[in-house]
Amino acid sequence: MGDIFHEYMSKRIKDISTSNPFENPGPVVTFSRAAGCSVKNITKLLQERLNSFSKQPKWEIISKEVLHESAERLNLDHETVQTIFNLSDRSLLDDIVNAFISRDYHLERKMLNTVVNVIYSFGIEGYKIIIGRGSNTICSSIEKSLHIRVDAPLEWRIQSVMQSKNLTRDKSRSFINHLEANRRNYRQMIKGKDSKDNDFDITFNKISFNDEEIVNMVIDAMKIKKII
Prior knowledge:
54% of the residues lie in helices and 11% in strands. By secondary structure, the protein is of the alpha/beta class. It is built from ten helices and five strands. Mean pLDDT is 81; it is low at 1-20. Helix 3 packs across helix 6 (104-125) and helix 8 packs across helix 9. The chain has one domain: P-loop containing nucleotide triphosphate hydrolases (Rossmann fold, 3-Layer(aba) Sandwich), CATH 3.40.50. A five-stranded parallel β-sheet has the order 2-3-1-4-5, with helices on both faces. It has helices at 2-11, 40-53, 65-74, 78-82, 92-99, 104-125, 135-138, 154-165, 169-191, 211-224, and strands at residues 28-33, 60-62, 128-131, 145-151, 202-205.
């Protein structure tokens, strides 16, 4: 069993070919956010500002498009593809054992590979703002890229979820814990068991900066890195 477990974990993302057909891939900005820290308004403001600099090409925000494109490539429904992002309720070791006696293992691997390749394709195509789904890791090899993390103290995030989802304090905390577990397990599938979600160029604390200020600093960083 140890050999099977090691083989499963060691192959992960290395199985995925990310050959680059573009001479000058990007630019791309990725956003990761702690559970309870929405980046919807930030990415919308950033898109508007970037598109105000130049009419062509237009910057696009990529989020659910990853699921749609992946589902289309796999000829599956969106809900099935979504399952690779919802892994917190199962034991990884038990899942691996069961996977080798079922077809689920092969389907999951195929879905993961497809999602990663879809995200990477968006990144190298360029002029994309990609939200979550490990895009910071997947697009890390693209020279014209900037990887942003938006975070905040737990209490602030609990209050944010209570307001946005109209939940009690306990349910808001449970929501955060569940979502973080899903993201952690998905990240481990891409990067490895001991992975940490810390490979970012800049991390912003939502308590310290408002959305407009974050956008201003992101644009400054893009200029420094000669992305724009």
